[in-house]
Give the backbone structure.
Amino acid sequence: MKVLRSYLDWARGDRRVSPWSLLIPFAGISHSLVAARNYAFDHGLLASYEPSIPVVSVGNITLGGTNKTPFVEMLSRHFLGMGIRVGIVSRGYGGRTNDEPVIVQGFSANRDIVGDEPLLLASRLSNVPVAVSRDRLKDVEALKKHNVELIVADDAFQHRRLGRDVDIVLVDACCPFGNGRLIPAGILREPPRALKRAHIVVITKADQVSSEELRAVREKLLKYVPASRLFTSRLELKTWSFWQGNWKDISGFEARDLPIVAFSAIGSPASFRRTLEQAGLNVLKELRFKDHHRFDERDMNRLGSLRKELGAAYLVCTEKDVYNLPEWDGDCPLLVPIISTVIDEEPRFWRIIAQTLQPRLVVASNGYGEDAMGALLAEKIRNRFPGALISSFPIVGKGEQYRNAGFIVDSSPSESPSGGVIKYHLSDLWRDLRSGLVRHIFSQFKAWRRLRGTVRTPLCVGDVYLLLHTLWGQGQLPLLVATAKTVYLSGHWRLERFLIKHRCRRVWTRDAETAKELSRSRANAVFAGNPIMDLTCDNNSGSFQWPEHKGVKVLLLPGSRQRAYQDMKMLLDAALLLQAKTPCSFVAVIAPSLDVRELVQGAPGWKVIQNGAGIKRDGIQVFFHFGSLVSVANNAHILIGLGGTANQVCAGLGVPVVSIREKGKLVQKKLLGNSEVLVAPDPKALADAAYAILTDKELRQAMAEEGRRRLGGPGALDNVVNYVAKELGWDLRCRIYEKVFCFGVSHSDGTIED
């Protein structure tokens, strides 16, 4: 015990010079290991899993002694008072639990198996199940069978495999960081900057230090935690109880000036002594044991003899120590203080809890078509969960489609000439690099870092690059609505299959065969409809009335990327040639990312119609449409299009597609099959191909049927929303948030702080 006491005195900073200083080099090793582990979780190299039940974690960054157990009890009682069914997960230090959870309720468990703290919590909270094992993820699953609605995780700040909705970290006012070194050279489990991950930091035992000492601790913490997220707490002596094989409450017991012998086996025995002295007890002698020490009969006989020798009235220990006592038949019952945690500024504390529990999702996408699907998915989620915060993270462009739908854009705007996705030529890559592609990638990662710890599972609409980008930036395992790869184009690379299998919660593919391909790699892949075709059902805003004109209805689509300014002239020249062959009505769909004036300037000879609805030349008019593609494509006879996703949507709607022969379109041709005709990038070739289709009814019908068959039907996005609601527990999360929010409002002025 002397050796242990000497080590603890040095590790806690009570002694500056000690032979234990030889351990200092090992602190550097610990620092490197902790940093590497946190880096791996921050960037998705190690996986964090979001349970389907909200989790409130209570932890610390030091070795014990921060009053986690009474804090967990306080939180659990408050949640119970809100009508929420609570469960607790605990590691069960001092026990012999393995990877299989043991459920503790009341006094139903063996201390040797589950440890002392779970028994203490279960006895104080008789209707709250406590799950104990080495694997907290399994604990959560075990508690779901007990109809638990919210988890309070004891000592889980370093258990990063378990996703959590609220991270509360406790800091001991009496010994906040010890000597400032990591174990084994100090008491720190992580450097103080790890507190930046916490949503709330609470300084415990604030009443056991002077105002000057408390101020000094606050100043240290404000380097890592904003003042709005910093709180203080204290322990309150509720009553006294006797223990002699069972509990006996002694209401009205007067302990002041009572001579006692104190003993404890806790992380902060000095705090226990201060509590006794503040209660007015006369501590004749105090004995300190190793944390979680299992007392034997010899220990108790020694303590009993010491009490008689000193003339003490009682032996006094903590409530936790009771569960480490042997069957001891002493001649005098043990006196045990029953304490509870009191949080200062309690209304503000619960406002922050409510704010942090508010469900928040981010929808990420990488492309104009993907933005359209992402905005639609975000809208569906917002309608299903009106109390949730839904934001967007487009990594290409400025996110106009999200902004137009009323969603916050969390990413940095992109101005890359190719649109941000390198598909066609090395020249595209060179132009993107010259325009600041590398700088933009790093700015996006910075934007992700600002969101880290504030959002739950990211929803990705795009390709595996977006999955990797989100994973590296956010760290949380995403869901992926896959819009790029399909077996009709090419199978997935081995690395892509690995990422989808190990770093993605679930992937929704665009066709059934692709889902089968990924499932053979044991990825969680499903086909529930083509997400692209969901645009045809729900995204019909901006309706368009075709001009009353005899002839065929021709849709022109320059695409959404920078090259559209050059391609627009080719489309307009093709329109002139096609009009010379057969009467036509022309409508050009203009993406929000394009500047109309620049488009018109790139087409000499064309003039803007007086009302700005389009342009005209040589007796023909091309009207502009800025709304939904679907609203105008449903009535079109043919598309002359240079887009990506938009071409696919039109083919899926049964509109024959004419496009140009280039690398990207040759790949797309594998998907669209005979629903698309590719020609040389020449206006005459485009016009001739369109005319051939328009004048061959059987060919046009065959192309329409092929497009519908290849693209399939809608339904994927609705399936994603249902998965989020049930498997990720968002229906439950929203209910819990409403209860906690109402509790916070009832105990405050109703405001929520930033």
About this structure: Residues 548-711 form a domain with the Rossmann fold fold (CATH 3.40.50.2000). The longest strand covers residues 230-243. The mean pLDDT is 88.
